[in-house]
Amino acid sequence: MNVADQTVVTPASAQAGAALAARIADHLASPQAVRATVPAHGWWPQSLAYGAAGIALLHIERARLGEGSWQRAHDWLACAAAEPASTGAGSHLYYGAPALAFAFDAAADRPGRYARALETLDRHIAAVARSRLDEAHARMDRGGLPALAEFDAIRGLTGMGALLLRRTVHHGDVHADLVRAILDYLVRLSEPVRRHGDLLPGWWSDLAPSGRRSSQYPSGHANNGVAHGIAGPLALLALASLRGITVSDQRAAIERICAWLDLWRIEGRDGPRWPYWITLSELESERPSPGPSRPSWCYGVAGSARAQQLAARATGDTGRQRMAEEALLHAMTARIPLAATTDLSLCHGFAGLAHIVQLAAADAITPGLRECLPRLLAPIESTTPDTLMACGAGLLEGTTGVALALLAQVNGATLSGWDSCFLIT
Helix crossing, 115-141 with 97-107: angle to 10°? Predict the structure, then answer.
């Protein structure tokens, strides 16, 4: 990747973005100072989404760029790892041992750095992943339907696979066999199942999008998003393939998932988009509800289009690649979709849109994406660190994520690979 080719902001905008990112980092310099501003019930050091593990990524990225001190990064890593790592049922990419491993791996800029911590965490993560794979296959064998947390990108095996893929690619075949086992599971998840006479996609859950049972979703739903739905597994299957890690029927699984997304694509005056989820009544009528249309990473066009762009690149499908890129371009230039974006976060705000567009533009065969960036960055660059801090300090929905997106725009790429936890690169 040529960093110079990735730089997409003007000198003035780059200067403003760099200054804002630096001021945010200074606001987040001390774990003790930040801790004092967070309610006790909201302080989760081992959280990649909201806690110290995620905040560490900002200081790691700045240290690797030569713009910040390694001491700050180490202080935040030490804060995240101060208590024994959570390795139980509640651990996942965004919490506990996997989240800590992700942060320490991002900081491992040379052989041997944090090696002992990573070796210990690797053992815990491998054991957890194998246990969850066994549970998932047992569930499939008895004909049950999955909870979203079994497979999704945040809490499930897709997120674990993203971490293990990262560890394997960056540090040799640390977990190559386990990555392939997760890919095998996702291939099986993509296969249709029959339930009470209905033919359903294999990721159909009998729970609500919240992950709980609800009278509003008496027959469950098929989730289409990146964060909690099938676009996350699609992205992991594609990313692994692009890195040369494949299993039997991986391409067929990619094509099955893409065919499902094609079936439910909604064409409108603002371009194509995908419903957040499909209920049984919609499946039977073959008519999705209009639903919300915020073009976010977690559920919207931005995340879905990036996942399909990756899938197209993995399979050599230039037609799909053009469709995905045009969908993203429409969403970033039409008034109504952008008007639905009301915050600055990575998860569902302008920082996430700008970062996805930057990545997609670097891979695109469709012109115009790069020109969308000034419009997406303007709401961020016009705010202040004090205003941003009111949104929280975390990676997923707070100032850490905004600052990291700004750094990526200024420098044209990421050195720590912090964005791989979003399944977009």
Answer: 140
Identify the pLDDT of residue 7: 41
DSSP 124-187: HHHHHHHHHHHHHHHHHHTTPPPPHHHH-TTTSHHHHHHHHHHHHHHSSSSSHHHHHHHHHHHH
Query: Looking up tokens 């915050």, which residue turns up?
Result: 343
Find residue 139's DSSP bridge partners. none
By three-state DSSP, how is residue 47 classified? strand
Altogether, the residues listed in the chain come to a count of: 425
What's the CA gap between 132 and 327, in Å, rounded? 35
What pLDDT sits at residue 10?
Answer: 57
What are the CB-based long-range contacts (under 8 Å, 24+) for 355-359?
A: 355/405, 355/408, 355/409, 355/419, 355/424, 356/297, 356/302, 356/303, 356/305, 356/306, 356/328, 356/424, 357/302, 357/328, 357/332, 358/6, 358/8, 358/408, 358/409, 359/306, 359/419, 359/424, 359/425
In the prediction, which pLDDT does 5 show? Answer: 37
The backbone region for 143, taken as left when phi is positive above 0, alpha when psi lies in -120 to 50, beta otherwise, is left
Give the Cα separation of 52 and 302 in Å (integer).
27
State which residues of the chain have pLDDT below 50. Answer: 1-8
Q: Which amino acid is at 316?
A: G
pLDDT attached to residue 14: 72
| Residue 115: CA count within 13 A, CB half-sphere | 6
Calpha distance 399→102 (Å, rounded)? 19
Task: Break the chain down into helix, strand, coil percent, rounded to 5.
Answer: 55, 5, 40
- Scan for tokens 């899938």, then name that residue: 311
- Listed in sequence order, the DSSP H helices in 28-143 are 31-35, 52-65, 70-80, 97-107, 115-141
